[in-house]
Amino acid sequence: MFDFLWRKKTASFTGGIILDGHKHVSKIITPPIAKELVYPLFLASNRYAKSCVKIGDYVKKGQVIATPDSPLSTPIHAASSGTITAIEKRLIAHPSGLAENCIILQTDGLETVLEAEPCLDYQQQNREFLREKIHLAGIVGLGGAAFPTAKKLNNSQPIHTLIINAAECEPYISCDESLAIRSAKNIIQGTLIIQHILQTARCIIAIEDSKPEAYAALLSAIKTTDIQIQKVPSIYPAGGEKQLIQAITGQKIPAQKLIFESGFICQNIATSFAIYQAIILGMPLTERVITVTGAGIKQAQNLQAKIGTPIKDLVQACQGYTNHAEQLIMGGPMMGIALASDDIAIIKTSNCLLIEPLKQADTQPCIRCGDCAEVCPSELLPQQLYWYSRSQEWDNCTDYQLADCIECGCCDVVCPSKIPLVQAFRIAKAEITQKHRQTEQAALAKERFENQQHRKLRIAQEKAQQLAKRKAAIEKMKAAAAQRKLN
Ligand code: SF4
Ligand code: SF4
Predict the structure, then answer these.
(1) Engineered SS bond to 272: which of 19, 190, 281, 425, CB 3.0-4.6 Å?
(2) Distance separating alpha carbons of residues 223 and 219, to the nearest angstrom
(3) CA of 369 relative to ligand 2 center, distance in Å
């Protein structure tokens, strides 16, 4: 794949590798407004939004165009003003490569904005009010997980430490670093709002030791607060939640345990910034900073991009492709997904577009060297998991804790046989999820059928009882009539 060094033994979390950063930290530029913005109604696994606009509607910047259709779904807002021209299937940024229903907005270039509802006195507001505002602003975790932030901040258990993740450990990606340099004060305002919602006494910003300018900007911005900042070694994947917690607190969160169960919560710095915009400025999430980089792009840079912008428009804003543009990856080289077309639009979690030459891997059989297990931050046995994934032994995959794989790609990078391990794990996870869903659906259908049968039986029994009662009453009446005749 690309150059790596084994990690030093002194590093502060299990596994991991040292990678060449390839980061080009640029000033953030604003590209021209795309003629067409595209909004998939598919949000993430099993999560959709429902369109609340129709073809021909005029919408303003910041207006809701789709509403949540389930508790883990979030609204979608127009990132510019214009007319809805279609609601149709388009290719989306998803490993499946499938098309999904999308709202198409033809922009008018006027940027007519819906009136904002700022809330400057957030400290006087209660947590529910602020969480609702965050939900209505459509904010999800911008570090990649796309989990609704309002849900994440609705902690059922006490949180003692809030960690703001500024590690950005994956090579090539520098959007968070650029954002920290440009908007450190606003990131801290957003962080204070999160702290107010969670009522956490302790807040630590974690940043890799290879980002001196961003570190200095954040350090200066926290001066009048009780927020701390701590450097972590530039070892991939230091930005993984459990790895970050271990790196800065020394506490190891056990496998199969969620971090909030141990009193921690992590938020990405871009999410902190989005919360500042939602609460202090009253603006929904319609834009984000994205890195466009790689040997296949003429001018690598960070862009303030409208969500819904087709990739080809961002490429144009970076002076176009070079002759090395052979593959398009959304995300970084370790965890990104390959896309089939630059017509696909960016979504809320799109932090990077990596355009690179195609690298053909000459896959060889496993030599059982154990390198993959040595670098795995989740302490798994990737070679064993690969074997079970390929042979579709799903129960063994579960027993060998495939669910704990964070898909960091460390095992792929070090494998001397160039085996595409993570690809096999992603397929296996999708199959297992599908199997669970089918089992749940089958159990639900069985339960429904049994309930229906019980209901039918109960109704039949009740009818029989009523009939018997009626018959007995008639008999009684007949007997009484006969008695009267005799008398
Ligand atoms: S991708 Fe999964 S198995 Fe491979 S090193 Fe990362 S966590 Fe371990
Ligand atoms: S690193 Fe590759 S060759 Fe070595 S044990 Fe793991 S899968 Fe096998």
Answers:
(1) 190
(2) 7
(3) 5
The number of residues in the chain equals 487
Write down all domains in the chain, each with its CATH number in brackets: 10-293 (3.40.50.11540), 360-487 (1.10.1060)
**222 vs 430, higher pLDDT:** 222
Q: Is the CB of 389 under 6 A from ligand 2?
A: no
Give the pTM: 0.88
Residues 237-295 pLDDT 10s: 999 999 999 999 999 998 888 999 999 999 999 999 999 999 999 999 999 999 999 99
61 torsion bin: left (phi>0), alpha (psi -120 to 50), beta (else): beta
Query: How many whole angstroms separate alpha carbon 113 and alpha carbon 99?
Result: 30
